[in-house]
Amino acid sequence: MALAEKTEQPELKRVLGPKLLLLFVVGDILGTGIYALTGQVAAEVGGAAWLPFIVAFTVAAITACSYLELVTKYPQAAGAALYVHKAFGIHFVTFLVCFTVMASGITSASAASGAFAANFVTGFGLEGGPGTLLLIALCFMLLVTAVNFRGVAESVGLNVVLTMVELSGLLLVILISFWAIAGGAADFSRVVAFDTPDDKNVFLAVTTATSLAFFAMVGFEDSVNMAEETKDPSRIFPRIMFTGLGITAVIYVLVSICAVAIVPIGELAGNATPLVTVVQTAAPDFPITAVLPFISLFAVGNSALINMMMASRLIYGISKHGILPRFLSKVHPTRRTPYAAILFTTAIAIGLITFLSLDSDNPVVALLGGTTSLLLLAVFAVVNCTVLVLRKDPVEHKHFRAPTPLPVIGAVACAYLVLPWSGRPVEQYQIAGVLLAIGVVLWAATYFTGGRNKKKFDDAAIPGKK
Fold first, then answer.
1. Could you give the domains of the chain?
2. Helices 202-217 & 364-389, crossing angle to 10 degrees?
3. What are the residues facing 16 on neighbouring strands?
4. Each residue of 333-344: pLDDT tens digit?
5. CA pair distance 315, 60, nearest whole angstrom
6. Going by C-beta distance under 8 Å and a sequence separation of 6 or more, which residues neighbour residue 79?
7. Are 305 and 144 within 8 A, CB to CB?
8. Residues 214/24/348/336 CA torsion (nearest 10 deg)
């Protein structure tokens, strides 16, 4: 008997209309990527830093079409895991999708901790040696853990406030840059100048930069988990998701153009706080520019908390249903939070931050941001294939249908950006491989100690990503 037949749960309240859903989509996409990685993107392609963001937007928009067909066809809050399970019905594959999404949350939060440390040092004028940055990053992660353990009452109203703060920082960059441009303090010849590393041609440099820029576009896929709380999702989801993607893409392109026009590429490339450098260069005596590092702290801090909450709840969910060891589903008796899953995901994040800070030659934020996009692009490639498989499963209600070539193009594009010849550092594959190996070992230990006799994934048992 399926879990859904054993217990009847009340439906989630449908409170999200078009405006609130749009703010959710925009707020989920904005965050660490654009605040931290603009300089790393410029290091790959020089002044044409806007181009990888456009390519990343295009791939994201094509993949969004697949998500839209699936979420309007199956308006449930389980996301990619539900779709993959419906298409293939292989429990191990469904588990891998779940664990890959969970791992992407940990790498994203770990990247955010590095960005937080860099902005903290800049904002408070501290000496930013490697040891100091590592200490701040670890303290920040422990703070996120404490908040996660205590329990965060997320609401639509809070999401609106967080989105407005994050958006205000990017609009501040754009407006101050426009003011500097109007005063003749910009060099637009840099905007069309490709400056690639010696070992890469232009195409390889663009794909490498796109892999980084894609980190700034992820988040749109999380909105499908709000399907059960959205009014008439089959009708409003397509328009709102494309609008949200379009708004963030325009903001990102404007920010990247302003950045390379105002700051020389040599100063921008590899910069850990690129947008702070942009506003300080554009208006060094303008008092409000001192606020941006703190807005950046808020933006990346919010991203880290959301991702660690998602990761711990995913681990809790799949452990609760007997797919991972049961001890990971333990809930604190007073706080009512999944403390075992929180400690597990935090331990992985701290290990990643510490090891990479001490042992990697690549910038940690770029390395972890690239690993996040690697993991999610692998999921997106599968989701694009899933759309075509589920065409044989008709439903009675009307839903969005992606033009057939788009999922094919999306699958090929996402798969290409996952593969080594896209120019990714080998360390990203090593990090992703270690994380997935941890999941497989835990799954195997559970399976061979009796897990195979316990409940498996069904449509009601797949945990969502909220």
1. 14-446 (1.20.1740.10)
2. 80
3. 230
4. 887 788 899 999
5. 26
6. 101, 221, 222, 224, 225, 464, 465
7. yes
8. -170
